[in-house]
Amino acid sequence: MHIIHAALPVLADKVDDFIEAATLDALGSVHHEPGCHRFDLYQNIENPSELWLYEVYANAEAFEYHRQTPHIKKWADTVKDWYDGERGPAIRGTNIWPPDDWNWSTGKPTA
Q1: Residue 110: inside a domain, yes or no?
Q2: What pLDDT score was predicted for residue 67?
Q3: Which terminus of the chain is more exposed, N or C, with fewer CB under 10 A?
Q4: Model confidence at 31: pLDDT above 70
Q5: Is residue 32, in this structure, part of any structural domain at all?
Q6: Rounded CA gap, 8 and 5, in Å?
């Protein structure tokens, strides 16, 4: 598995627009990319302009495929001026739990 966790500091007046754009990217990812297992966008309760991405891909190749899709290019172009300061680097990691053979849609092992 290939996992991405990234902070997205968004301008306060662009939060709703950013969420709408990110939701379209998420839908494109989970509906049209067989290697995308999760695409979560969540918001800091105490600081609503702080959004976070948590994405899980089958492998690094699936993530690279994602980076070339029209929906992420549209998202990136749409939101490029909506960040509040610099975005920090995304954290990339490998999966520990649940195991890679877990059925992500039901929460039960596939094997």
Answers
A1: no
A2: 93
A3: C
A4: yes
A5: yes
A6: 10
* Residue 41's CATH number: 3.30.70.100
Indicate the pLDDT class of residue 104, thresholds 50, 70 and 90: low
pLDDT band at residue 44 under the 50/70/90 scheme: very high
What is the spatial distance between Cα 110 and Cα 106, in angstroms, rounded to a whole number? Answer: 9
Which residue is listed with tokens 């902070």? 7
Residue type, 44: N
Question: ∠ at Cα 25 (33, 90), nearest 5°?
Answer: 90
Q: Domain range for residue 66?
A: 2-105
Q: How many domains does the chain have?
A: 1
Work out the angle between the directed axes of helices 15-32 and 70-79 (0-180°, nearest 10).
170
Q: What Cα–Cα distance (Å) separates residue 27 from each residue in 7, 24, 33, 46, 102? A: 19, 5, 10, 26, 21
